[in-house]
Amino acid sequence: MARLLTYRALNSILVLFAVIGMAFAILFLQNYKGLEPCPLCVFQRIGLMVMGVFALIAAIGNPKTKAIQLLLWLGSMAGILWSAGVAARHVWLQHLPPDQVPSCGPGLDYWLEALPMKQVINQVLSGSGECAEISWRFLGLSIPEQALILFSALILVNLLVLWRIIKNKIV
Question: What is the C-alpha to C-alpha distance for residues 69 and 73, in angstroms, rounded to an integer?
Fold first, then answer.
């Protein structure tokens, strides 16, 4: 079993789940179900893409030095930790009492045009009423709850990548 969990194989698993997650979000939720992503959903997707890009570089390049492997791992882990953190915030917003839900703002498109990026990030992470809305459930879980489960699993796979890097006797 340990021989199957090579550095390249683990990064390929991360890429596979990044692609599946993005395809599910775009093709099923957005195109088929007609659900527009809220700002927090967009931020979660960005983190998933960051993880996927770093994992893809690691899987294709299969670097031999620990320094480069660790650098790619760090980028991958940063992306998925970002996604998990945003998803956790999203879940928290969805469980607020209705009177404590933030009001709906003008939307991400407007913020990107009118505000500096730092302020856009603050606005998005503060949440808005549309982020607290539960528009679809599967097995009793909202979309952010499902995403948080996926991101948690991908964090575990990323930790396996780190274990593989440390275990390998590469200079």
Answer: 6
158 within a domain of the structure (yes/no): yes
**CA separation for the pair 60, 62 (Å, rounded):** 6
Number of separate domains in the chain:
1
Long-range contacts of 161-168, Cβ-Cβ distance < 8 Å, separation of 24 or more: 161/7, 161/10, 161/11, 161/14, 161/58, 161/73, 161/76, 162/73, 162/77, 164/5, 164/6, 164/7, 164/10, 165/7, 165/66, 165/69, 165/70, 165/73, 168/7, 168/66
Classify residue 2: in a domain, yes or no.
no
CATH number at residue 34: 1.20.1550.10
Is residue 19 within 8 A of residue 56, CB to CB? The reply is no
Largest CA distance in the chain: 57
- Predicted structure pTM score: 0.82
Q: Is 31 exposed, middle or buried (0-12, 13-18, 19+ CB in 10 A)?
A: exposed
pLDDT along the chain (171 residues), means of 10: 78 95 91 86 91 96 92 97 92 80 64 72 67 79 92 96 82 40
